Fold:
Amino acid sequence: MSVTITTVAKQLPKYTRSTAEILPFVKQWLNGQDDRFKRKVVKIFEGAGVDRRYSIMDAHEVFFHSTFEERNAIYVEGMKLLGKQSLEKALKKAAWKAQDIDYIITVSCTGIMIPSIDAYLINELDMKQNVVRLPVTEMGCAAGISGMIYAYNFLKANPGKRAAVLALESPTATFQLEDYSMVNIVSAAIFGDGAACVLLSSEENAKGPRIVNEAMYHFYNATHMMGFKMVNTGLQMILDKDVPQQIAQHFDAIIHPFLDESGKTIADVDHLIFHPGGKKIVQTVEDLFSGLGKNIEDTKEVLKLYGNMSSATVIYVLERFLEKDIPNGELGLMLSFGPGFSAQRILLEF
Structure:
């Protein structure tokens, strides 16, 4: 019994600015700081590999206004809107109805809302009353693939069913106005907001890439490397500078045993669908894969066009591959990293 990806739909917020357009706001935010420090921050933004980003808030709201309560209220309303838009767009592409969904999995880590977004979608779209909900809130950038893994396991155990995975994120809602640390600045330079929906099916003869295998890999003694700290002003980013080095050290253990389980090697993988965590992580993974004759050009392009949208970003990369004319039988490897520290992987057959 196969589980296939039926379609993917992305949804961007209404506010958007290029990095060049954001820099005047950054410079104003830096008023009172040392001139050398200001130049360093501007250089970080200019060298982040992000040309444009989207947001549920305009730039002046991000850099100059609002309390944690106000930002979280914007997050809640923004996620409701983006969730509905992305799900409706995906359903239309698949020619499905909201009532067709048996499992709805929502992932987000950049705000707080109870009940979770899926409860609102059930009401607004009149979904079936026995739809199975799974909100995932604490897996960060890895959660897009995590949600797909959970959907795969639901569907694998239940033939003839359909699932929706929604990744909904607003990293800009976590920006700390009074925090001039490198972590807060680097995060602001690479992150943007966005949403995406993946529809999956365990129906007989369903079309789309087939999930061949999935797995999670957990780094020991690395809980300090990535995540959020809850402070009075909101969710404060934690991002250890050694993340790229840790990825490099564990790379062989993450990739090769996973492919071995399916009787494959890296030479059999035709397409890399990698989450663009940031320029340094992308460069690290690119160097590792280039030695194996692989490239991550689509990953770099998504980072350039949208920034890192946390859990949603890898789904934007996946959409690019679904829009290509890929020959039947070719393999794609999905890979993302997130808090824990962990690596999430899915092997696809097109």
The mean pLDDT is 94.
